[in-house]
Design brief:
There is one protein chain. The chain is α+β, with helices and mostly antiparallel strands and about 190 residues long. The protein has one domain (about 5-190): BirA Bifunctional Protein, domain 2, CATH 3.30.930.10. Helix content is about 25%, strand content about 30%. It is built from four helices and nine strands, in the order ββαβββαββββαα. Strands 1, 2, 3, 4, 5, 6, 7, 8 and 9 form a nine-stranded mixed β-sheet that branches. Strand 1 and strand 2 (about 15-25) form a beta hairpin.
């Protein structure tokens, strides 16, 4: 797959932002890049067809209504090697901080979710291959999704979105991505050199 375009992330180090119309999984694509990617590289797609959560669960991201992206984090860029699970928590805290910017109060739910009230708004998946010093952090955030957009999918807990929590306001997905990347940069800076 060829990205639609590549630009500077502007919010996470000197990494590049690879933008796709659709991908099966942003995490899988970034992991497949191996040494051709660099710390801070981010891949964002409009539609993700085979997104995953923890324990192989499917992440349903309808159309261009949500934000699905992954970012590469090199362990050497941090003061200490972090356990993989802490990357998920760092991602959840970054999303929580960025939601504040849009006037939405949320909380991180261990180990890798962000909830608003009693509904899930975001899932995060941190992965690495083998003993690699590279972690890939995937984020799936419901942005402009409405209940009708989830169709017949069954959820243990009904999901929510930024739009639903803001009285049906519509958000510019790129603006949300920029806010989350800036928050992630700050969150990781608190514990390392990122």
């Amino acid at each position: 797959m060829i990205p639609m375009h590549i630009e500077s992330t502007g919010g996470f180090q000197a990494g590049r932002l690879f933008v796709f119309d659709d991908l099966s999984s942003t995490n899988a694509w970034l992991l497949d890049q191996g040494d051709s990617s660099i710390h801070g590289d981010t891949v964002w797609c409009q539609r993700q067809t085979a997104g995953r959560g923890r324990r192989g669960r499917h992440w349903h991201a309808p159309g261009e209504l949500g934000l699905t992206f992954s970012v590469r984090i090199d362990q050497e860029s941090l003061k200490e090697r972090l356990p993989l699970g802490l990357f998920g928590l760092a991602g959840a805290l970054a999303v929580r901080e960025s939601l504040k910017h849009f006037g939405i109060a949320s909380h991180a739910k261990w180990p890798n979710d962000v909830w608003v009230s009693e509904r899930k708004v975001c899932g995060i998946l941190a992965e690495r291959r083998g003993l690699s010093n590279v972690a890939v952090l995937g984020v799936g955030l419901n942005v402009n999704t409405a209940p009708k957009d989830w169709g017949e999918h069954a959820y243990l807990t009904p999901p929510t979105s930024m739009s639903m929590e803001s009285g049906a306001a519509q958000f510019i997905i790129h603006d949300v991505l920029t806010a989350v990347l800036a928050s992630l940069n700050t969150t990781l800076s608190l514990s390392g050199k990122a």
